[in-house]
Amino acid sequence: MPRGRYSLHDPHDHTPLAEEHFHCAPGPSGWRYVSQLTTTSGDHRGSVDLALDELGRPIRLELHAAGWQVRGAALDGVTWVRTDPTGAHATEGNVRAHAFTGTSPAFLIATTRLLRLTPSATATRVRLVAFTDPVLAPRTVDQSWALVKRETHATDNGPLTVDEYQVTALDTGGQHAVHVAGDVVLAAPGIELEDLESAPSTFT
Question: What count of other Cβ atoms lies within 10 Å of the Cβ of residue 122?
């Protein structure tokens, strides 16, 4: 069960945003990721709880940030309920999309599990609903993902396979790289792996 800490920062000006303390593990029905977020001063900032089925689809998502809450799942595309900090108002949304995304590294792992790409120059298009900080506002985004490189590195704990993905935002054409080992993000825009207590899980 990988357990560790990511630091999150603004990918444009590198302003520190939060630290995300996480643990995750594959199970008989899929994969689950749970994390707590703190501000740079150590205050509680939010939480992420994401569970995927064996095909990589989100069977349960629960996000908390700035008093806002989102609960969602794959249902007729993806469906979610967003509740305001007072708890008095809840709005439901549904989009013909494949999955969810957001600032948490969990969503990058979830997308790789959903797409299950093999090393190739061919890109695969995916539609995602992004929940943006700080109020978890939903926004539909279209991306293409390609697994451009797979390398195996020797480590003290045995071989470690690292996948490099090229992700393209289809609305702007902007591209960035995401480096993943098993169910841990090693590097991505706005994300740095600061601490890892055990080796990443390998998916069969």
Answer: 10
The C-alpha atoms of residue 90 and residue 52 are separated, in whole angstroms, by 24
DSSP per-residue codes, 188-200: ETTEEEEEESSPP
| Residue 101: band (very low, low, confident or very high) from pLDDT cuts 50, 70, 90 | very high
**What would the pLDDT profile of 1-36 be if each residue is shown by its tens digit?**
899 999 999 988 999 999 999 999 997 789 999 999
Number of neighbours of residue 124 by Cβ within 10 angstroms: 15
Q: Which residues contact 91 (CB under 8 A, 6 or more apart)?
A: 81, 82
End-to-end CA, the chain: 15
Q: Each residue of 54-87: b (16+ CB within 10 Å) or e?
A: eebbbbebebbbeebbbbbbbeeebbbebbeeee
pLDDT at residue 159 above 90?
no
